[in-house]
Amino acid sequence: MAMVEQRIEHSHLAIRGLNLHVAQAGTGELGTVLFLHGFPEIWYSWRHQMLAVAAAGYRAIAPDWRGYGLSDQPPEPEAAAYSDLTEDLLALLDALSVPKLTLWQRISEPC
């Protein structure tokens, strides 16, 4: 099988009153892998992994959280809660028609 060069495509989706930036690669014959950046990172932290899983036949998705990277800043960032991130993520997955996925998240260790 010939290796197909993968490219990362970028879009913005209107999610819960904000325009959220989403980076995607691959077509997803084998499923979808979701990459979530830590704080204060952006989608770009996952670029190499996205291309690798896309080349292996997966759809790779890496959004910028609200207020990070190319996503909109919420009107009152100090009032944001983790539930906002969860609701954003669920709405984003619905907008992208992702019924099932594999999740990769970078978790920082305490200093």
TrEMBL record:
InterPro entries: AB_hydrolase_1, AB_hydrolase_fold, Epox_hydrolase-like. Keywords: Hydrolase. GO terms for molecular function: hydrolase activity. It comes from the Eukaryota. Pfam families: Abhydrolase_1 (PF00561). Residues 32-104 form the AB hydrolase-1 domain. Belongs to the AB hydrolase superfamily. Epoxide hydrolase family. This is AB hydrolase-1 domain-containing protein. It comes from Triticum turgidum subsp. durum (Durum wheat). The lineage of its organism: Eukaryota, Viridiplantae, Streptophyta, Embryophyta, Tracheophyta.
